Amino acid sequence: MSAPPTSEFDGVVVAVTGAAQGIGRSVAEAFADQGAHVAVIDVNLAAAEATAAELEGRGGRVIAVQCDVARQDSVQSAVDQVTEKLGAIEVLVSNAGITRPAMIRKMTLEEWNEVIDVHLNASFYWLKAVVEPMIAAGGGRIIFTSSSTAQNGSVGQVNYAAAKSGILGLMRSAAKELGRYNILVNAVAPAAVTDMTRKVLTDPKFGADPAKTILGRWAQPDEIAPAYLFLAGRGAGFITGQVVSVDGGSMMVR
Ligand SMILES: NC(=O)c1ccc[n+]([C@@H]2O[C@H](COP(=O)([O-])OP(=O)(O)OC[C@H]3O[C@@H](n4cnc5c(N)ncnc54)[C@H](O)[C@@H]3O)[C@@H](O)[C@H]2O)c1
Protein backbone atom coordinates (compact mmCIF):
# COMPACT_ATOMS: atom_id res chain seq x y z
CA MET A 1 0.00 0.00 0.00
CA SER A 2 1.38 3.43 -0.91
CA ALA A 3 2.05 5.97 1.85
CA PRO A 4 -0.62 8.65 2.35
CA PRO A 5 0.17 11.88 0.47
CA THR A 6 1.95 14.46 2.59
CA SER A 7 1.36 18.18 2.51
CA GLU A 8 4.08 20.81 2.35
CA PHE A 9 2.46 22.25 5.49
CA ASP A 10 2.78 19.06 7.56
CA GLY A 11 4.09 20.15 10.97
CA VAL A 12 4.60 23.78 9.91
CA VAL A 13 3.80 26.24 12.72
CA VAL A 14 1.19 28.77 11.58
CA ALA A 15 -0.20 31.61 13.71
CA VAL A 16 -3.46 33.20 12.57
CA THR A 17 -4.79 36.27 14.37
CA GLY A 18 -8.51 36.96 14.52
CA ALA A 19 -8.99 33.25 13.85
CA ALA A 20 -12.01 32.62 16.07
CA GLN A 21 -14.40 33.41 13.22
CA GLY A 22 -14.77 34.78 9.71
CA ILE A 23 -11.87 34.81 7.28
CA GLY A 24 -9.30 34.03 9.99
CA ARG A 25 -11.21 30.92 11.00
CA SER A 26 -11.29 29.72 7.38
CA VAL A 27 -7.56 30.36 7.06
CA ALA A 28 -6.85 28.41 10.26
CA GLU A 29 -9.06 25.58 9.02
CA ALA A 30 -7.33 25.46 5.63
CA PHE A 31 -3.89 25.20 7.26
CA ALA A 32 -5.14 22.62 9.81
CA ASP A 33 -6.50 20.50 6.96
CA GLN A 34 -3.01 20.54 5.45
CA GLY A 35 -1.43 19.14 8.62
CA ALA A 36 -0.01 22.41 9.97
CA HIS A 37 0.26 23.13 13.70
CA VAL A 38 -2.10 26.09 14.05
CA ALA A 39 -2.43 28.77 16.72
CA VAL A 40 -5.96 30.21 16.74
CA ILE A 41 -5.28 33.65 18.16
CA ASP A 42 -8.10 35.99 19.14
CA VAL A 43 -9.17 38.54 21.72
CA ASN A 44 -12.26 36.38 22.30
CA LEU A 45 -10.80 33.37 24.12
CA ALA A 46 -14.04 31.39 24.40
CA ALA A 47 -14.63 31.67 20.64
CA ALA A 48 -10.98 30.86 19.88
CA GLU A 49 -11.20 27.75 22.08
CA ALA A 50 -14.39 26.63 20.35
CA THR A 51 -12.75 27.05 16.94
CA ALA A 52 -9.58 25.27 18.05
CA ALA A 53 -11.67 22.37 19.40
CA GLU A 54 -13.45 22.05 16.04
CA LEU A 55 -10.16 22.04 14.13
CA GLU A 56 -8.36 19.64 16.46
CA GLY A 57 -7.69 16.30 14.82
CA ARG A 58 -7.73 17.65 11.26
CA GLY A 59 -3.98 17.29 10.94
CA GLY A 60 -1.45 18.87 13.25
CA ARG A 61 -1.93 20.34 16.70
CA VAL A 62 -4.31 23.26 17.18
CA ILE A 63 -4.21 25.61 20.16
CA ALA A 64 -6.21 28.67 21.19
CA VAL A 65 -4.34 31.73 22.42
CA GLN A 66 -5.93 34.86 23.81
CA CYS A 67 -4.39 38.07 22.54
CA ASP A 68 -5.44 41.67 22.13
CA VAL A 69 -3.44 42.55 19.03
CA ALA A 70 -3.76 46.24 19.87
CA ARG A 71 -1.35 45.77 22.81
CA GLN A 72 2.33 45.06 22.21
CA ASP A 73 2.74 43.14 25.48
CA SER A 74 -0.20 40.92 24.59
CA VAL A 75 1.25 40.20 21.13
CA GLN A 76 4.65 39.30 22.62
CA SER A 77 2.98 37.06 25.18
CA ALA A 78 1.02 35.29 22.40
CA VAL A 79 4.21 34.70 20.40
CA ASP A 80 5.90 33.29 23.52
CA GLN A 81 2.96 30.95 24.20
CA VAL A 82 2.83 29.69 20.61
CA THR A 83 6.60 29.14 20.57
CA GLU A 84 6.48 27.21 23.83
CA LYS A 85 3.53 25.01 22.82
CA LEU A 86 4.02 24.51 19.06
CA GLY A 87 7.51 25.81 18.22
CA ALA A 88 8.73 28.97 16.48
CA ILE A 89 6.19 30.62 14.17
CA GLU A 90 7.05 29.86 10.54
CA VAL A 91 3.97 31.45 8.95
CA LEU A 92 2.23 34.48 10.40
CA VAL A 93 -1.21 35.48 9.13
CA SER A 94 -2.08 38.87 10.61
CA ASN A 95 -5.83 39.09 10.11
CA ALA A 96 -7.62 40.35 13.24
CA GLY A 97 -9.76 43.35 12.53
CA ILE A 98 -12.60 45.67 13.48
CA THR A 99 -14.51 48.50 11.87
CA ARG A 100 -15.74 51.66 13.58
CA PRO A 101 -17.53 53.46 10.73
CA ALA A 102 -18.57 57.09 11.11
CA MET A 103 -18.57 60.17 8.93
CA ILE A 104 -15.54 62.43 9.46
CA ARG A 105 -17.62 65.10 11.18
CA LYS A 106 -18.86 62.54 13.71
CA MET A 107 -15.88 60.20 14.05
CA THR A 108 -14.35 60.40 17.51
CA LEU A 109 -10.65 60.27 18.26
CA GLU A 110 -11.36 57.01 20.09
CA GLU A 111 -12.91 55.46 16.93
CA TRP A 112 -9.91 56.63 14.91
CA ASN A 113 -7.35 55.29 17.40
CA GLU A 114 -9.12 51.97 17.98
CA VAL A 115 -9.04 51.07 14.27
CA ILE A 116 -5.45 52.27 13.80
CA ASP A 117 -4.42 50.24 16.87
CA VAL A 118 -6.09 46.95 15.88
CA HIS A 119 -4.93 47.05 12.26
CA LEU A 120 -1.82 49.19 11.74
CA ASN A 121 -0.13 49.27 15.14
CA ALA A 122 -0.88 45.57 15.61
CA SER A 123 0.82 44.78 12.30
CA PHE A 124 3.97 46.48 13.57
CA TYR A 125 3.80 44.66 16.92
CA TRP A 126 3.55 41.28 15.14
CA LEU A 127 6.35 42.16 12.75
CA LYS A 128 8.60 43.09 15.67
CA ALA A 129 7.72 39.92 17.57
CA VAL A 130 8.29 37.38 14.78
CA VAL A 131 11.21 38.86 12.85
CA GLU A 132 14.06 37.81 15.18
CA PRO A 133 12.90 34.17 15.50
CA MET A 134 12.34 34.00 11.72
CA ILE A 135 15.83 35.35 11.04
CA ALA A 136 17.23 32.79 13.49
CA ALA A 137 15.29 30.03 11.70
CA GLY A 138 16.60 31.08 8.29
CA GLY A 139 13.34 32.52 6.92
CA GLY A 140 9.58 32.70 7.18
CA ARG A 141 6.39 33.98 5.67
CA ILE A 142 4.36 36.97 6.86
CA ILE A 143 0.96 37.67 5.34
CA PHE A 144 -0.92 40.80 6.30
CA THR A 145 -4.57 41.54 5.62
CA SER A 146 -5.41 44.73 3.77
CA SER A 147 -8.59 45.69 1.91
CA SER A 148 -9.69 47.15 -1.40
CA THR A 149 -10.61 50.14 0.78
CA ALA A 150 -6.87 50.88 0.94
CA GLN A 151 -6.87 51.70 -2.78
CA ASN A 152 -10.44 52.91 -3.27
CA GLY A 153 -11.22 54.74 -0.04
CA SER A 154 -14.65 54.37 1.54
CA VAL A 155 -17.25 56.84 2.78
CA GLY A 156 -17.46 56.68 6.58
CA GLN A 157 -14.21 54.79 6.94
CA VAL A 158 -11.26 57.22 6.97
CA ASN A 159 -9.89 55.31 9.97
CA TYR A 160 -10.15 51.87 8.32
CA ALA A 161 -8.89 53.02 4.90
CA ALA A 162 -5.92 54.79 6.50
CA ALA A 163 -5.06 51.69 8.55
CA LYS A 164 -5.38 49.32 5.58
CA SER A 165 -3.29 51.66 3.35
CA GLY A 166 -0.71 51.89 6.11
CA ILE A 167 -0.50 48.10 6.21
CA LEU A 168 0.43 48.07 2.52
CA GLY A 169 3.27 50.54 3.08
CA LEU A 170 4.48 48.55 6.06
CA MET A 171 4.22 45.30 4.10
CA ARG A 172 6.19 46.61 1.11
CA SER A 173 8.92 48.14 3.26
CA ALA A 174 9.21 45.00 5.38
CA ALA A 175 9.46 42.91 2.20
CA LYS A 176 12.38 45.06 1.01
CA GLU A 177 14.11 44.98 4.39
CA LEU A 178 13.63 41.28 5.16
CA GLY A 179 14.18 39.66 1.77
CA ARG A 180 17.86 39.23 2.60
CA TYR A 181 16.79 36.95 5.49
CA ASN A 182 14.53 34.83 3.28
CA ILE A 183 11.45 36.30 4.95
CA LEU A 184 8.72 36.91 2.37
CA VAL A 185 6.10 39.52 3.22
CA ASN A 186 2.82 39.91 1.32
CA ALA A 187 -0.79 40.94 1.84
CA VAL A 188 -4.24 39.70 0.89
CA ALA A 189 -7.07 42.15 0.16
CA PRO A 190 -10.27 40.14 0.67
CA ALA A 191 -13.98 40.74 0.23
CA ALA A 192 -16.37 38.23 1.82
CA VAL A 193 -19.59 38.09 3.76
CA THR A 194 -18.64 37.86 7.46
CA ASP A 195 -19.93 39.35 10.72
CA MET A 196 -17.85 42.43 9.86
CA THR A 197 -19.45 43.00 6.46
CA ARG A 198 -22.81 41.17 6.50
CA LYS A 199 -24.89 44.24 7.30
CA VAL A 200 -23.21 46.48 4.76
CA LEU A 201 -23.18 43.87 1.99
CA THR A 202 -26.68 42.45 2.41
CA ASP A 203 -28.85 45.36 3.60
CA PRO A 204 -30.06 47.18 0.45
CA LYS A 205 -30.08 50.49 2.28
CA PHE A 206 -26.27 50.58 2.14
CA GLY A 207 -26.43 50.24 -1.64
CA ALA A 208 -23.87 47.42 -1.80
CA ASP A 209 -24.37 45.77 -5.14
CA PRO A 210 -22.95 42.30 -5.90
CA ALA A 211 -22.79 43.44 -9.50
CA LYS A 212 -19.82 45.53 -8.35
CA THR A 213 -17.81 42.34 -8.48
CA ILE A 214 -17.06 40.87 -11.89
CA LEU A 215 -18.48 37.58 -10.67
CA GLY A 216 -21.76 39.20 -9.65
CA ARG A 217 -21.80 37.88 -6.09
CA TRP A 218 -20.04 38.20 -2.74
CA ALA A 219 -17.66 35.50 -1.50
CA GLN A 220 -17.76 33.25 1.54
CA PRO A 221 -14.69 33.24 3.86
CA ASP A 222 -13.52 29.82 2.67
CA GLU A 223 -13.02 31.30 -0.80
CA ILE A 224 -10.45 33.74 0.63
CA ALA A 225 -8.34 31.22 2.57
CA PRO A 226 -6.58 29.57 -0.44
CA ALA A 227 -4.76 32.84 -1.21
CA TYR A 228 -3.13 32.73 2.23
CA LEU A 229 -2.17 29.09 1.68
CA PHE A 230 -0.64 29.96 -1.68
CA LEU A 231 1.39 32.87 -0.29
CA ALA A 232 2.67 30.64 2.53
CA GLY A 233 3.60 27.78 0.23
CA ARG A 234 6.57 26.72 -1.88
CA GLY A 235 4.84 27.92 -5.04
CA ALA A 236 5.09 31.51 -3.80
CA GLY A 237 8.80 31.28 -3.03
CA PHE A 238 9.64 34.14 -5.40
CA ILE A 239 6.72 36.42 -4.46
CA THR A 240 7.24 39.22 -1.96
CA GLY A 241 5.97 42.75 -1.43
CA GLN A 242 2.71 41.99 -3.26
CA VAL A 243 -0.97 42.40 -2.53
CA VAL A 244 -3.33 39.69 -3.77
CA SER A 245 -6.91 40.90 -4.19
CA VAL A 246 -9.46 38.16 -3.58
CA ASP A 247 -12.52 40.27 -4.22
CA GLY A 248 -14.20 38.85 -7.32
CA GLY A 249 -12.64 41.63 -9.36
CA SER A 250 -14.57 44.38 -7.57
CA MET A 251 -11.52 46.65 -7.78
CA MET A 252 -11.84 46.61 -11.58
CA VAL A 253 -15.58 47.25 -11.71
CA ARG A 254 -15.75 50.27 -9.44
N1 LIG B 1 -14.93 40.52 5.20
C1 LIG B 1 -14.48 41.33 4.25
O1 LIG B 1 -15.11 41.52 3.19
C2 LIG B 1 -13.18 42.03 4.41
C3 LIG B 1 -12.79 42.93 3.41
C4 LIG B 1 -11.55 43.54 3.51
C5 LIG B 1 -10.73 43.26 4.59
N2 LIG B 1 -11.15 42.40 5.57
C6 LIG B 1 -10.25 42.15 6.66
O2 LIG B 1 -10.18 40.74 6.90
C7 LIG B 1 -9.89 40.53 8.30
C8 LIG B 1 -10.89 39.54 8.90
O3 LIG B 1 -12.18 40.15 8.84
P1 LIG B 1 -13.54 39.32 8.93
O4 LIG B 1 -14.42 39.86 7.86
O5 LIG B 1 -13.27 37.87 9.00
O6 LIG B 1 -14.11 39.87 10.34
P2 LIG B 1 -14.79 39.15 11.58
O7 LIG B 1 -15.39 40.26 12.37
O8 LIG B 1 -15.67 38.02 11.15
O9 LIG B 1 -13.56 38.53 12.38
C9 LIG B 1 -12.58 39.33 13.00
C10 LIG B 1 -11.92 38.56 14.13
O10 LIG B 1 -10.91 39.42 14.71
C11 LIG B 1 -11.01 39.33 16.13
N3 LIG B 1 -10.49 40.55 16.74
C12 LIG B 1 -11.04 41.78 16.74
N4 LIG B 1 -10.30 42.64 17.46
C13 LIG B 1 -9.25 41.93 17.94
C14 LIG B 1 -8.13 42.26 18.76
N5 LIG B 1 -7.97 43.50 19.26
N6 LIG B 1 -7.24 41.29 19.04
C15 LIG B 1 -7.41 40.02 18.56
N7 LIG B 1 -8.45 39.66 17.81
C16 LIG B 1 -9.36 40.60 17.49
C17 LIG B 1 -12.50 39.14 16.39
O11 LIG B 1 -12.76 38.63 17.70
C18 LIG B 1 -12.89 38.19 15.26
O12 LIG B 1 -12.72 36.84 15.64
C19 LIG B 1 -9.88 41.91 8.94
O13 LIG B 1 -8.57 42.40 9.01
C20 LIG B 1 -10.69 42.73 7.99
O14 LIG B 1 -10.40 44.11 8.10
C21 LIG B 1 -12.36 41.78 5.49
CATH class category name: Alpha Beta
Structural class: alpha/beta
Radius of gyration from the alpha-carbon trace, in angstroms:
18 Å
Per the CATH scheme, the topology name is Rossmann fold
Which percent range fits the helix content? 40-55%
Q: How far apart are the first and last residues' alpha carbons, in Å?
A: 54 Å
Strand order of the largest sheet: 3-2-1-4-5-6-7
Number of distinct beta strands: 7
pLDDT below 50 for ≥5 consecutive residues: which ranges? none
Q: Give the CA-based shape.
A: globular
How is the main sheet built? 7 strands, parallel
The distinct ligands, each listed once, are:
nicotinamide-adenine-dinucleotide
Order of helices and strands: EHEHEHEHEHHEHHEH
What is the CATH homologous superfamily assignment?
NAD(P)-binding Rossmann-like Domain
- Average pLDDT value? 93
Overall tally of structural domains: 1
Summed up, the helix count is: 9
Strand content: 5-15%
Descriptive notes:
This protein is α/β, with parallel strands linked by helices and 254 residues long. It has one domain: Rossmann fold (3-Layer(aba) Sandwich). The protein contains nine helices and seven strands. The chain has helices at residues 22-33, 45-55, 72-85, 109-137, 149-152, 158-178, 198-202, 225-232, 250-253, and strands at 13-17, 37-42, 62-66, 91-94, 140-145, 183-190, 243-246. A seven-stranded parallel sheet has the order 3-2-1-4-5-6-7, sandwiched between helices. Helix 1 (22-33) packs across helix 8, helix 3 (72-85) runs parallel beside helix 4 and helix 4 (109-137) runs parallel beside helix 6. The longest helix is centred in the middle third of the chain and has 29 residues, at 109-137. 43% of the residues are buried. It binds nicotinamide-adenine-dinucleotide (NAD). Nicotinamide-adenine-dinucleotide binds next to helix 1.
